[in-house]
Structure formats: C-alpha cells, structure tokens
Amino acid sequence: MAKFDTHPTVQWWRQQAVVQSSVRPASLNAESLRSLCLEAGADDVGFVEIARPAVEDQRSEILAAFPSTKTLVSFVCRMNRENIRTPARSATNVEFHASYDHTNEVARRIAKTLEQVGIRAMVPGASFPMEMDQFPGKVWVVSHKPIAVAAGLGHMGIHRLVIHPKFGNFISLGTVLLDAEVTSYTYPIDYNPCLECKLCVAACPVGAIGADGHFNFSACYTHNYREFMSGFTDWVGTIADSKSARDYRQKVSDAESASMWQSLSFKANYKAAYCMAACPAGEDVIAPFLTDRKAFVQAVVKPLQDKPETIYVVPGSDAETYVARRFPHKTVKRVSSGIRPKSIQGFLFGLPLLFQREQAEGLNAVYHFTFTGAEARRATVIIRDKTVQVQTEHVGRANLLVTADSKTWLRFLAKEYNLLWALLQGKIRLSGSPKLLLAFGKCFPA
Q1: How many CB atoms lie within 10 A of CB 372?
Q2: pLDDT value at position 20?
Q3: Which of 95, 111, 293, 439 has an alpha carbon 20 to 30 Å from 199's alpha carbon atom?
C-alpha cells in the first residue's frame, strides 16, 4: 500500500475515515427508514431481518448476490386498476411495464439515499432482467412475494398474487437488500384480504386456479407467459423446424409473429393476468363489488370471459380440456411448454409444477427412479388421488422401477432420444409394467 500513500484520493479517504465511521448509524431507525422509502415513491413498506425463518429457503441465494445483507426492505407501488381490468391487453402491458420501471426507480432512490449515509444497499430488480443463464431453473435473485408477506404487506390469495389490505392485488413488489439492521421489524398481518369470491377462478382462461385452491402452474405459464422464456424458445424452435416462409405461416399466424416482434421490441407482453383484473379485494378496491356484485361481474369479469382470443395450451393438458369446455369461442393453439430440464434435480423439482391432476385420475402408483452416470441419485414419485409427491431416496414399495443414465433421461425428456432405442441399449431399464411409464408421462405433458 506504500506506493499509494501519496495519491490524492488515498490521502482524502484517510482524512475522512474518522468522519465516515461516525456518520454510519449502528442500526437504522425504522420510522425514519419508512419515511425515506415513502418519500422515494413507495406506497407501503415493511422490513424483514435476513435471519427470519420465512427467508430460509432463499437466504443462501440472497447472500450469494449481496453477502452483507442484514435487512430486506419490502415495498409496494400501486398500479392503475382500470388498465389491468380492460380486455385491451396493450393497455394492460403498458401498465405492467411502466409500474415495474417505476418500482425499480423507487428502489434505486432508496439505495442511493442510504449510500449517502454509509449504508450499502443492493437492488435485485422488480422484474426483468433476470439471471437467464440459470434458465429453466430459478432465474430471480429474490422471491418478492414471500418477502412482502413476511413484511406485513398482505397475503397471497388463491390466485397466488399478494393482496395488500388497502390497495388489493393492484400492486408491484420491490425489495432492497441492506447491510444494516433496523431498530424494529414488521410481521405478517393477522388476516388474509382474499375474499375467496372465486372471480379469479371464473376469469382465468386456462383453468389454472381451482375452486378448491389448487393451482396449475403449467397452464398459467404456458399461456400467460407465451412470449417469455420457454414460450419464446418454443417459437424459435418452430422457426428452425419450418421448411419455408409458407410452412412457417401455416404454423404461426401473422398476428402471432407481430405480437412476438412487439415483445422483442418493447418488452415481453402478458397474455392474460385476468386473475388480477377480476380481484375485488382491498379497502380501496372493494366498494363496487359490495355495492352491486352482479354489475361488477358484468363490467369486469364478463368482458374478459367473452373476449375472442388465442389460448395457448400443451397438448393433452388439463388446460386444453378446460378451454374447449368452458370457452368454446376462444381459439385453442397447441404448443410445447418449452420446458426442458437441464439436470435431474431440475426434472424432479419441476414435477409438481407440471403435474396435470385431471390426467392422473384413476392412477395410484409409486415410482422409484434410480439415475446413474453424471448425476447419480435416487427418488420416489407417488401419484395418488390426483396428487403428486416427490421424495428423495426410495420410499415404500414401487409399482415401477426406472433405472436410467441421467444424460440419456434428460435427452429423452427433450425429445432428442427415442425411448425404445434407449430401452434396447439398456440406458433406460424398467422393472414393472411399461404402461405405468406411459401413465406417468400423461400426467406431465410438455
């Protein structure tokens, strides 16, 4: 360090070191921090310590991104409700993206102000960009929803959106990571603002939300996020597989191509989010619903239900059956989910997300998987009473034992390797009825 001693910046810093150490507080006053966040543009805010059990499942990822994290500042920004409720999805997407940009700017203001008093702060981002090198695994740094719940900013409704007690679900969520503690933290509210009115169930075009609280991740992901991530990779695959422009146009309409261009040029567009549009919960939102429920349904829910539109579904999925039965006036387009796990861990993690419970009706079976080779591990998958459980190691007595080379299995899932050929080569071996493997595949169409 001696060679730096005469440098003006080094000399300045050493002169300021004592002053800087006295400026930084030992812990941040909670009320002052709250005022700072509201002045920065947040509409409500809460604080969660990094050691709280509610953060446990993502603590290691948060610390990997910002190792000195001690506090998570969770905040919400209100959205314009009518832009979300309209059947004109262009207006909805303008609101989504403008709201996310605003939320990110609020987070940046908070971080900038804190850094001026010696508090280091990191902004993970409210939406895109994300850690796409990890796709199709977890691509976000912070899961904002559980943090918001832990901070007392609302609870998850049956549609899996956070409902703020005052603003309803018309909010965007942000998080700022701090390297300082706060004098007091906030905790979950003691009731769920969700009314369980089931209007989100009625509005969802793919039946992703069950009246019993079940959520079909695959149905929602395939349609609403058609122009994000997996839907985009599936579209690229369609281009690559097309023999000519004419062949491509037989597979993809001009409107779909133009919509994809719009997403590439002006940020990806959501196809639905009708669950958010239909939700009447929250003190600022509930009045029209309680005043005249029938009129509310006619004004908000019915236009979404009646809208002619293309609905994207995986062939053989529960969503395909649902749309044909519930919304025959909407156009069903069969597409691939585009989800291809990169690892056996990813395959096992994705099973509950891709599970189609109606396709599993009547199936009661225990599957033992033994993976060898590059990623050796054992697992048990239990499908019973239209539910799925995934457990590590072999549990119970198996109806079907599948032994597979891990790389071969992943190639088989990606439709790059023929199952019959893998069986003949011994890279995949079955002990039990092959029909059970077919029944297994039916539960997880991709």
Answers
A1: 17
A2: 55
A3: 95
